[in-house]
Amino acid sequence: MNSDLDMPDAGISDASTADERAADAVWQDDVRAGVRHVRDLNSLPLSPAERAAAQQAAAHHKVRAPKPYLDLIDWNDPHDPIRAQVIPSPAELVATEGELDDPIGDHDFSPVPRLTHRHADRVLLFPTYQCAVYCRFCFRKESLTSIGRGYTREALEPALAYIAGHREIREVILTGGDPLSLPDKALGEIRAGVEAIPHVRLLRIHTRVPVALPSRVTAGLVKALQGRLMVTVVTHFNHAREITDATEGACRTLRQAGFVLLNQSVLLKGVNDTVEALEELCRELMYRLGVKPYYLHHGDLARGMAHRRTTIAEGQALVSALRQRLSGICNPTYVIDLPEGGGKVPLASCAIEGRDGETWRIRGQDGEVRAYKEVVGAR
Fold first, then answer.
1. Would the pTM of this model clear 0.85, i.e. be above it?
2. Other C-beta atoms within 10 Å of 48: how many?
């Protein structure tokens, strides 16, 4: 199993100044000091039984966590929310009927390698199938474990040609794998390749790097991403415990570069499935990090993840309670990414109780149902 990140010392050297080389050395050291292989689980404070079970589960899905993320774990708490996200569990070996290898239909909408075109005006582009951290609940776990390929310019040429040939595409979403696990030179090449296509206007980047490896967010990384395109960075914080001084600094660097910051979380049983946990997370994202809570995802049908999925009704109750506690700007949209390429669909409970002609019955945040009569001009 290949566990090497796409780091400069693994094939691409791009640091051009002493400061950039020093910054690169920090994040590379953070990667090396963490868990990178199944055998590294032996260094963690697990019981012999836990270690054996974790190693068995890790053989089915890659294991990796940089040292800064591992340092957040309270090893005395078997239910620690950080631990639950990255340490393999024997429950992952239990496949439940209805779970899928490709939960959202990536492969069915892939006209060329490393690209998914599910929606007319935007595409997913996969520069790498490697990550800085491997989340146990990942909906692409089958692809990431089986493919394991890193970045090359040649590998992206068919995808870039496809984008250039489809003028309806306005937005390119870098995902994977984690695009920010790539070195600066590779990111600059990808950005330049995309922005050379005139009809593309926005580059969106989905990443857990600011969460799990904040030292990777350097001046060199920012410079590699700046150009003609608007840039949106979608982070992936799932719990307020992931918000630290280091992650705050990383997000500040991205904000000050002019990038729009959004966050999508996954609703995970035993991790963030209480209104208190989600309230703190969403408030701190907006007020401390300047990151807009964007989506709260219902758990995808990834194999071996039944033990982390809530019911839809439980999720609806949570987001309804959040609406009563948080400013609108702090509230994410609760969505499900439907199988077979059905896309993201909002799951929030509807406040409309009924209608009689121009009069609607709408339930307020206080629980009371009120009549609202539409008043519009002559048609």
1. yes
2. 7
